[in-house]
């Protein structure tokens, strides 16, 4: 499938439906085509603008889907209609398909208790799922090398990394040299949700693109991060949209 791409503030965003994203990644898993999936949001773009290594990783990713509603708003300002593709929902569909096909998966991240409970719960939901390897997210640089060696030995088809951005993307980038046929996706706080420690926003919030608001209400400490990044991001998105209209008008 040919990638259709638009740019938001200099970063590529893949334009596709949720189902197309699932099918595209599933086909890559079936064909042993390794890839790095980025589930991008405004906070990640602001982080990347301050972190050269992270910026390069975002720009080199094989698939970049709009996880944050701020991204879809930025696209809409450019008259591009694109549905939000929540990373946690995409990850669940990939896990479900791996359970059907027998492809091995690995889980990296979160506290040990959360990791074990998350693994237990998804194994209950997807009975034939083969979790070939898992490790918590608290490790040293030396331990990181051991984890990458273990992953290479187990050779999973799909690796879900829950370390938070940009740590999870940087870790994935280190893994890819020895795991070229593996699909990687950073899933942030998904393990907490799967473990039952964090409540997912009700469907009405998700359908309205307000999951971030629900999470902020439930976790007020998130407000400081969002307050620092979202207004700046949206201001830049408006300026970018105006500039593009002016350029088109001058042609």
Percent range for β-strand residues = 15-25%
Classification by helices and strands: alpha/beta
Low-confidence stretches: none
Q: Which strand order spans the largest sheet, edge to edge or round the barrel? A: 4-3-8-7-5-6
CATH class: Alpha Beta
Sum this structure up briefly:
The protein has 251 residues and is of the alpha/beta class. The protein has helices at residues 18-30, 42-48, 52-60, 69-76, 87-101, 112-125, 141-154, 167-175, 190-194, 203-207, 211-218, 222-249; strands at residues 5-8, 11-14, 35-40, 63-66, 104-109, 130-135, 158-162, 183-186.
Strands, helices and their partners?
Layout: E1 5-8, E2 11-14, H1 18-30, E3 35-40, H2 42-48, H3 52-60, E4 63-66, H4 69-76, H5 87-101, E5 104-109, H6 112-125, E6 130-135, H7 141-154, E7 158-162, H8 167-175, E8 183-186, H9 190-194, H10 203-207, H11 211-218, H12 222-249
Keywords:
single chain, 251 residues, alpha/beta, Rossmann fold, 6-stranded parallel sheet, two-stranded antiparallel sheet, 12 helices, globular
Describe this protein's structure.
This protein is an alpha/beta fold. The protein has one domain (5-249): AF0625-like (Rossmann fold). Helices cover 54% and strands 16% of the residues. The protein is built from twelve helices and eight strands. The protein has helices at 18-30, 42-48, 52-60, 69-76, 87-101, 112-125, 141-154, 167-175, 190-194, 203-207, 211-218, 222-249; strands at 5-8, 11-14, 35-40, 63-66, 104-109, 130-135, 158-162, 183-186. The strands form two sheets. It has a six-stranded parallel β-sheet, sandwiched between helices. Strands 1-2 form a two-stranded antiparallel ribbon. Helix 1 (18-30) packs parallel to helix 5 (87-101), helix 2 (42-48) crosses helix 12 (222-249) and helix 4 packs parallel to helix 12. The longest helix is centred in the last third of the chain and has 28 residues, at 222-249. 36% of the residues are buried.
